[in-house]
Protein backbone atom coordinates (compact mmCIF):
# COMPACT_ATOMS: atom_id res chain seq x y z
CA UNK A 1 0.00 0.00 0.00
CA UNK A 2 1.22 3.50 -0.79
CA UNK A 3 2.08 5.93 1.99
CA UNK A 4 2.21 9.66 2.36
CA UNK A 5 5.99 9.36 1.95
CA UNK A 6 5.29 9.72 -1.79
CA UNK A 7 5.84 13.52 -1.69
CA UNK A 8 3.49 15.10 -4.24
CA UNK A 9 4.87 17.99 -6.28
CA UNK A 10 1.65 19.96 -6.91
CA UNK A 11 -1.45 20.79 -4.85
CA UNK A 12 -3.54 18.69 -7.26
CA UNK A 13 -1.24 15.67 -6.83
CA UNK A 14 -1.48 16.11 -3.05
CA UNK A 15 -5.29 15.95 -3.12
CA UNK A 16 -5.18 12.87 -5.37
CA UNK A 17 -2.74 11.20 -2.96
CA UNK A 18 -4.95 11.98 0.04
CA UNK A 19 -7.98 10.55 -1.76
CA UNK A 20 -6.06 7.36 -2.51
CA UNK A 21 -4.37 6.90 0.86
CA UNK A 22 -6.24 8.78 3.57
CA UNK A 23 -9.77 8.24 2.27
CA UNK A 24 -9.76 4.98 0.30
CA UNK A 25 -7.21 3.46 2.70
CA UNK A 26 -9.27 4.35 5.79
CA UNK A 27 -12.49 2.44 6.31
CA UNK A 28 -14.02 5.13 8.51
CA UNK A 29 -13.14 8.09 6.26
CA UNK A 30 -14.34 6.14 3.24
CA UNK A 31 -17.62 5.17 4.99
CA UNK A 32 -18.21 8.76 6.08
CA UNK A 33 -17.51 10.13 2.60
CA UNK A 34 -14.74 12.59 3.46
CA UNK A 35 -13.65 14.63 0.44
CA UNK A 36 -10.19 16.25 0.52
CA UNK A 37 -10.13 19.71 -1.08
CA UNK A 38 -6.60 20.82 -0.16
CA UNK A 39 -3.51 19.35 1.48
CA UNK A 40 -0.52 21.54 0.75
CA UNK A 41 2.27 23.37 2.59
CA UNK A 42 0.86 23.02 6.09
CA UNK A 43 -2.79 23.55 5.20
CA UNK A 44 -5.63 21.12 4.63
CA UNK A 45 -9.31 21.44 3.89
CA UNK A 46 -11.87 18.66 3.73
CA UNK A 47 -15.60 18.42 3.22
CA UNK A 48 -18.23 15.98 4.43
CA UNK A 49 -21.86 15.86 3.33
CA UNK A 50 -23.93 15.15 6.44
CA UNK A 51 -26.21 12.13 6.21
CA UNK A 52 -28.69 10.91 8.82
CA UNK A 53 -26.41 7.99 9.75
CA UNK A 54 -23.69 10.48 10.81
CA UNK A 55 -25.92 12.35 13.28
CA UNK A 56 -26.91 11.94 16.88
CA UNK A 57 -30.45 11.91 18.34
CA UNK A 58 -30.98 15.69 17.93
CA UNK A 59 -30.01 15.55 14.26
CA UNK A 60 -26.62 17.25 14.75
CA UNK A 61 -23.41 15.71 13.44
CA UNK A 62 -22.25 13.19 16.02
CA UNK A 63 -19.30 14.38 18.12
CA UNK A 64 -17.23 11.46 16.83
CA UNK A 65 -17.79 12.68 13.28
CA UNK A 66 -16.82 16.25 14.20
CA UNK A 67 -13.75 14.84 15.98
CA UNK A 68 -12.82 12.76 12.93
CA UNK A 69 -12.98 15.86 10.75
CA UNK A 70 -10.76 17.82 13.16
CA UNK A 71 -8.32 14.92 13.50
CA UNK A 72 -8.11 14.39 9.74
CA UNK A 73 -7.66 18.11 9.09
CA UNK A 74 -4.72 18.24 11.52
CA UNK A 75 -3.14 15.00 10.32
CA UNK A 76 -3.52 15.90 6.64
CA UNK A 77 -2.03 19.37 7.18
CA UNK A 78 0.86 17.77 9.08
CA UNK A 79 1.40 15.17 6.37
CA UNK A 80 1.82 17.94 3.82
CA UNK A 81 5.02 19.04 5.59
CA UNK A 82 6.18 15.88 7.39
CA UNK A 83 5.15 12.91 5.20
CA UNK A 84 3.52 9.87 6.77
CA UNK A 85 2.07 10.72 10.21
CA UNK A 86 -0.20 9.53 13.01
CA UNK A 87 -2.03 11.63 15.57
CA UNK A 88 -0.51 11.35 19.05
CA UNK A 89 -3.19 13.43 20.79
CA UNK A 90 -5.82 16.04 20.21
CA UNK A 91 -8.10 18.23 22.27
CA UNK A 92 -11.38 19.44 20.85
CA UNK A 93 -13.77 22.14 21.97
CA UNK A 94 -17.33 21.99 20.66
CA UNK A 95 -18.57 25.55 20.20
CA UNK A 96 -21.95 25.11 18.51
CA UNK A 97 -24.21 22.33 17.28
CA UNK A 98 -22.81 20.92 14.04
CA UNK A 99 -26.02 20.97 12.07
CA UNK A 100 -26.54 21.65 8.42
CA UNK A 101 -25.85 20.10 5.05
CA UNK A 102 -22.12 19.57 5.39
CA UNK A 103 -19.05 19.96 7.56
CA UNK A 104 -15.92 21.73 6.37
CA UNK A 105 -12.69 21.25 8.32
CA UNK A 106 -9.56 23.32 7.90
CA UNK A 107 -6.22 22.27 9.33
CA UNK A 108 -3.19 24.48 9.93
CA UNK A 109 0.34 23.53 10.97
CA UNK A 110 1.41 25.77 13.82
CA UNK A 111 4.91 24.32 14.27
CA UNK A 112 6.60 21.44 12.50
CA UNK A 113 9.49 19.76 14.24
CA UNK A 114 11.42 16.58 13.62
CA UNK A 115 9.53 14.57 16.28
CA UNK A 116 6.17 16.29 16.37
CA UNK A 117 3.93 18.62 14.41
CA UNK A 118 1.50 20.83 16.31
CA UNK A 119 -1.67 21.71 14.39
CA UNK A 120 -4.95 23.51 14.80
CA UNK A 121 -8.26 22.66 13.18
CA UNK A 122 -11.55 24.45 12.69
CA UNK A 123 -14.73 22.53 11.88
CA UNK A 124 -17.50 24.55 10.29
CA UNK A 125 -21.12 23.51 9.70
CA UNK A 126 -22.58 24.81 6.47
CA UNK A 127 -26.02 25.13 4.93
CA UNK A 128 -26.68 26.64 1.51
CA UNK A 129 -27.85 30.24 1.84
CA UNK A 130 -26.71 30.64 5.46
CA UNK A 131 -23.51 31.87 7.04
CA UNK A 132 -21.12 29.07 8.10
CA UNK A 133 -21.05 28.32 11.83
CA UNK A 134 -17.82 27.48 13.65
CA UNK A 135 -18.83 24.25 15.38
CA UNK A 136 -15.51 23.14 16.88
CA UNK A 137 -11.82 23.92 17.23
CA UNK A 138 -9.07 21.45 18.02
CA UNK A 139 -5.36 21.31 18.64
CA UNK A 140 -3.38 18.19 17.83
CA UNK A 141 0.09 16.81 18.26
CA UNK A 142 0.95 14.69 15.25
CA UNK A 143 3.94 12.33 15.02
CA UNK A 144 5.89 11.84 11.79
CA UNK A 145 6.56 8.15 11.07
CA UNK A 146 9.51 8.61 8.73
Describe the structure.
The protein has 146 residues and is an alpha+beta fold. It contains 3 helices and 6 strands. It has helices at 11-23, 27-32, 63-82, and strands spanning 35-40, 43-49, 85-94, 102-112, 117-126, 133-144.
- Portion of residues in beta strands equals 35-45%
- Poorly predicted segments: none
| Secondary structure tally, helices | 3
Give the structural class: alpha+beta
Query: What value does the average pLDDT take?
Result: 92
Number of strands: 6
Which sequence of SSEs, written as H and E, runs from N to C?
HHEEHEEEE
Rg over alpha carbons: 14 Å
* Overall geometric form: globular
Distance between the ends: 16 Å
Q: What order do the strands of the largest sheet run in, or round the barrel if closed?
A: 1-2-4-5-6-3
In which range does the helix fraction lie? 25-40%
The main pleated sheet reads as: 6 strands, antiparallel
Sequence-ordered SSE layout with sheet pairings:
Layout: H1 11-23, H2 27-32, E1 35-40, E2 43-49, H3 63-82, E3 85-94, E4 102-112, E5 117-126, E6 133-144
